[in-house]
Amino acid sequence: MTERRSPIVAAVVVHDGRVLMVRRRVSEGSLSWQFPAGERESGETPFATAVRETREEVGLNVAPQTVLGEREHPVTGRRMVYVSCAVDGGSTASLVDTEELAALAWCGWSQLIEKVPTGLFPAVRDHLQTVLTL
Predict the structure, then answer these.
(1) What does the pLDDT look like over 30-59, one tens digit per residue?
(2) Is residue 3 part of a domain?
(3) Is residue 2 in some structural domain?
(4) What is the pLDDT of residues 71-80, one digit of tens each?
């Protein structure tokens, strides 16, 4: 029997027409820039994971809005859940998890496409096309 790993939950955080991206210190295949994300812990909802991971990685408080979609990631093979989030309150993003992360950036559409040249999961792409500035 194969052990089933918990899914990875990605927080798609949008604020003032830009989406939050983080650059991992260790790339996963061709992936370098990605959304704040991490493994769902036992008993956690995807919303709770998105909130926890965003706070742990970049110190930002977010309010989850909706699950944008789920898939098996084509590069990592992990089950992914994408949660749209808004910035909650007056917190600002900064590198908190410096062991795992090398940089962060707030990206408009054109910067996002430069950072993720392999393309976005269609449900995430469709959402971001409606909320990001160029």
Answers:
(1) 668 999 999 999 999 999 999 999 999 999
(2) no
(3) no
(4) 998 878 899 9
**Is residue 6 within 8 Å of 39, Cβ to Cβ?**
yes
Q: In this predicted structure, what is the pLDDT of residue 91?
A: 74
100 token code pair: 């795992």
Asked whether residue 134 is assigned to any structural domain, the reply reads no
The per-residue DSSP string of the chain comes to -PPPPPPEEEEEEEETTEEEEEEEEEEETTEEEE-SEEEPPTT--HHHHHHHHHHHHH---EEEEEEEEEEE-TTT--EEEEEEEEE-TT-------TTTEEEEEEE-HHHHHHH-TT---HHHHHHHHHH---
Distance CA 96, CA 84 (A): 21
Asked whether residue 75 is assigned to any structural domain, the reply reads yes
Residue 123's CATH number: 3.90.79.10
The closest of 26, 10, 118, 25 to 68, measured between CA atoms, is 10
Distance CA 7, CA 76 (A): 11
Total structural domains in the chain?
A: 1
What is the extent of the structural domain holding 12? 8-129
